[in-house]
Amino acid sequence: MSNDAAVTENPPPSRRAKHEKQPLSEQEAAAKRAKAEKIGRTVAVFIMPLMIVGMMIWGYLGAMHQQEAKNMPVAISATSTEKAEDFVRTLEAGNGDAVDLRIVDSPREARELVYDREVTAAVDLDGKTATMYTASGAGVSASSAIKAVLTPVVLEEGLELVSEDLKPLPADDSMGMGAMLLATAMITAGYMPWSLAYSNSPELLRRRRALPLLGGWSILLSGLGILVGGPILGVLHAATILPAWGTLALGVFAVGAGQLLLTRIFGAMAVIPGMFLFMVLGQPASNMGMSVYMLPKIFPFLHQFLPMPALGEAMRSVLYFDGDGAGVHILILAGGAVAALLLVALIDALRTAKGKSDIPTQINVPSLHGGPRPKNKAWRYITLGAVPFAMIAIMLSSMLGAMQTPAPREMPVAVVGSSMEQAQQTVDSLKESMEDKFTFTAMDNAGDARYLVESRELAGAFVLPSKQDPEATIYTAQASGNAASQVVVQVFTQISQAQDMSVDHRELAPLPEHDNMGTVVMYLGMGWVMAGFMVIMVGSTAAPHLRPLQNLIPLVAVYSAFMSAVLYLIAGPFTGAVEGRFWQLFGTGMLAIFSVAMLTTVFNRLMGMVCLLPTMLIVMFLGVPASNGALSIYMEPRIFAILHDILPMPAAVEAIRAIIYFDGAGLSSHLVVLGIWALASLALTLVIDQLKPVHAEAHPVSAEELAALQGRQRDAKASEAAASADGIDAEAGELADAQAAAGASANEDREKHAVSV
Description:
The chain is of the alpha/beta class. It is 64% helix and 7% strand. The longest helix is centred in the last third of the chain and has 45 residues, at 712-756. The chain crosses the membrane at residues 42-61, 175-198, 210-229, 235-258, 265-285, 326-347, 381-403, 520-540, 552-570, 582-603, 610-635, 667-688.
């Protein structure tokens, strides 16, 4: 054998150590497992928010950043078939992709189709008159969109246009927000509690407990919606209260049953498919805030069976159409609930047959309030129910209260005359008729007014005719707020027409084609805010070792950069909602995410997961109405205009607006607001940490509770019973042996006595 072979067969000790793993001691193995678990939990802090926030923002931006009419159903009636066919050909020539036309026999049939919501509009041609029928109760967005398509064609044909709204919305719910926000709140009430219960009190997921709890919860939360929407805000009238209550209760029950099924399938991750199904797909497909005929074609299809559209359309029928058309949507909800519960029963039966538990046997969130797990189950259950109950109450009160009746309120507009006297006279006249709808500024220089509109200090400007320019002019900046721009154009066009003045609208900051409704700023800002909120919510439970500030600040800094980059990718390359501006948006996004994370940390230090309530109130339920994103702050109660300059959500939205529409003009003031929130929250956290020690480990769950959850308590009782039975048998055996011995002794004595006799 060669020396090389000998070396190969008998390697030196140093080489053997490399190839042979030395067994680890128990202490080393435990340390290795603990390290791996910490790494896994730290990764989860990134993964969970990435999935939830990324899914929602991608879904909303992908669906709603570019809106255009697509196959909107329209009915056409005329005095002759030939005339109807000619009008149809004219419409299809210029708007073939926007409308789906059908010819009907009579104006009555056309009106019935609009009322039944089978078409978005109908046009009846009678001589030189075209009557357009719409129903704003079926959706303001759809009515506005189809009017924008049909009106130019009617006017180009030289026809006199007459518009008739067959089902106008009530004055106290002029945008149909009541049905939309009540439905959204009940969908949240349906899926949210089960995700909390899964991690905190999984014993409640057993069917014998879950079904009565779900029934009671549905009645309670729908009653909350009725209370807020009815007596408090006046959206619901007396005649609609009972049918609305029943409809909302069914919606909560159906979604809760669906979420219960998802927990059986996906376990602790059920919150992700639940949010995806009920909100990410359900909200755009609901046809409530935005017509499904202005979104990608998948959403009209999803509108037919998802629970959010079913509940929203059922509520629309109850509130605005005297219940007509609600039946089919109620059947969808009821059928979905029954199917979900049958599948839950089937899954439970299969697991039981295999000897598995039908519920989770671990507790991932021992306490919701941040302290030790309550020993009294009643307190734990009360907290578990109070969190979603309070969240729904806050959501409904703040958002429905803010957006229930959007109308101009002290909207700043300049009136420009050839002289200050002329401008002031016009202002005085307008004030008498407009009350507090607008705040007018009299000016005599159109250039100055134009500058103020471009710099977003004014919502618009109305330039009166002069000798040099006999036409009135309206200036707006659509990118500074689409809703406000539309109001200014509509109101001052009507004023001009009433005074027989021709009017010209000049748009100073038009929205780009890929964001023609201006929704990108709101959804991207919402993504930043949610990302900051989620990292603390997930980290405080999944990775408590990161809670001390020396660990938390570096983690949040890295996370903020990571999520800011991800959200830019979603808004930019993935959906096409944003073009360029990477570094500005990336840096601002980092600051916004970090600021909200620090704000959430303050409340999390004080109240654990219950921080959900004050944080969501500040950053979302007050922040969204005050953001000037979904709705102009000049169309909401005055308090939101004040909050617009204070809260982090408006600062984030306006910062995005400044970057992508106005080349960064005005950005610095919004960065200052975000920076103040970050620094103030960090300082408060430092103070709290000095007064209250930071727990870097999860609070323990008693062994008895885990044993009961895992079914070991029953086994212990069985063993105890068996041991008792064995004891009884042993005692009986000893008594039998003693009796036998006594009998033998007696026989022996008798025999001895007989012998002696």
